[in-house]
Write a structure and sequence with these properties.
- 2 copies of one chain form a homodimer.
- Chain A is an all-alpha fold and about 220 residues long.
- Chain A has 2 domains: about 25-65, Arc Repressor Mutant, subunit A, CATH 1.10.10.60; about 70-210, Tetracycline Repressor, domain 2, CATH 1.10.357.
- Chain A is built from 9 helices and no strands.
- Chain A has helices spanning about 25-35, 45-50, 55-60, 65-90, 95-110, 115-120, 125-150, 160-175, 195-210.
- The longest helix of chain A has 26 residues, at about 125-150.
- Chain A is elongated and about 60 Å long.
- The termini of chain A are far apart.
- At the A-B interface, helix 8 and helix 9 of A face helix 8 and helix 9 of B.
- The structure holds a DNA duplex (30 and 30 nucleotides).
- Chains A, B: Keywords: DNA-binding, Transcription, Transcription regulation.
Chain lengths: ~220, ~220
DNA sequence: AAATCAATACCGAACGTTCGTTCGACAATA
DNA sequence: TATTGTCGAACGAACGTTCGGTATTGATTT
């Protein structure tokens, strides 16, 4: 991400044959296939077929498999960074900040599902993956800080270790990528009936108040 | 693979050179490598090297990459099935059953980490994977039933959809595989300071009572 | 006790396939 | 004519797997 020159919004060919596919469109298609088959198990032939192109034509539009992964996970990381940028502009009590970040992060995850899914599945096998994982760790760290602040302010329970709580909370949020499919009929056959806002509400409620029936 | 005659429990050589590696030992090594590099990204050469064997010798002891995955995820599924078998022998109120299954499932996950991790990462690309996913779905279904029962008994809150709650709860538990490493210094550089019982306690507490500071 | 045998552990080399990627040529447009 | 989209064919590398042969052992036979 040192040079961000390649990804304007819609790179349109100014001469020659009109471009049928923008870079972003292709990344969207690619991410979807990665999401279904897994990155390693997806071949360039798979990606080309899903884009309606031959392998060689596909290579005319993209620079390679690893760069495609890079573009996709960068989309997720940019969106997640955005959550904390919004948050920095607001002033609120620690627990309310935590709740809002929890809510917004969940919303971003649902909105950018394929990209976030790819990000969460990285194993750090290549340099591209390791760079992305480093950016992801910085997101985690900012979240852990929010938990710490809320705890220092006495607004959340203090009998559980903050780092552990942070991991469990965002583990719950991130687990959405395992079954949520934006379309009503999931391709993996899982399927669900939850609307986005219902999911976001359940996440925040469960995280803060737990599952027990309230006394009163 | 049409003939599955080769795999008894502990096939011990009755003659000739003593076997230095049992099937289970090899599966343990293999699962660890799968866990670190990811199944697809792991080559048979990687597995042989981790076992201290050449590729061809390694093939003398195992039947192939896919069968290794099968053995590994079966270990996880057997352990998870065991949790529900124990549970069936006990009689208790629904919410206590749910709490104990939550606790035992977390314990099993920590104890059988590499195997459960592999199970959770399956994408269903091959027949072996699809069979394992089907067994996994039956585990999920039994868990969902427990949530339903506790809700019907009025012991957990009824304002959240049971299927959604089930998924979020076990999403939180399953997310442990993303960072937990049994050894103090994780190979992925994550590292943590939590003991197993502390983690189990936090999971159950967070799930049932939530993060909010208790009033009183 | 020595020789023999069957079974197993082990290895280097190679197989056929699939992978990501490149290349040269042709078609279409400005 | 310059530029871009498209394509078939091929590249070297890496993959999972197989094979022929050798080394080492325990049991059996002499």
């Amino acid at each position: 991400m040192s040079k961000g020159a390649e990804a304007g919004a819609g790179v349109v060919a100014r001469r020659g044959r009109p471009a049928r596919y923008s870079q972003d469109d292709l990344v969207a298609v690619v991410a979807q296939v990665f999401l279904e088959r897994g990155y390693d198990a997806t071949s360039m032939a798979d990606l080309a077929r899903a884009s309606g192109l031959t392998k060689s034509t596909f290579y005319h539009h993209v620079s390679g498999k690893e760069q495609l992964l890079r573009l996709a996970v960068s989309r997720a990381l940019d969106a997640l960074d955005g959550v904390f940028e919004e948050e920095a502009r607001l002033d609120d009590s620690p627990v309310h900040r935590l709740e809002r970040v929890l809510r917004r992060t969940t919303e971003v995850l649902l909105a950018e599902l394929p990209y976030v899914t790819l990000l969460l599945r990285l194993r750090g096998n290549t340099e591209v993956e390791r760079e992305a994982l480093e950016r992801r760790r910085s997101v985690d760290a900012r979240l852990a800080q929010l938990v710490q602040d809320a705890r220092a302010a006495g607004q959340i329970r203090s009998d559980l270790e903050p780092r552990l709580v942070t991991r469990l909370l965002f583990g719950m949020v991130n687990s959405l990528v395992e079954w949520y499919r934006p379309d009503g009929s999931g391709a993996s056959g899982v399927g669900h009936g939850s609307r986005d806002d219902e999911i976001v509400h359940a996440v925040v409620e469960l995280a803060l108040d737990g599952l027990h029936a309230r006394r009163g």
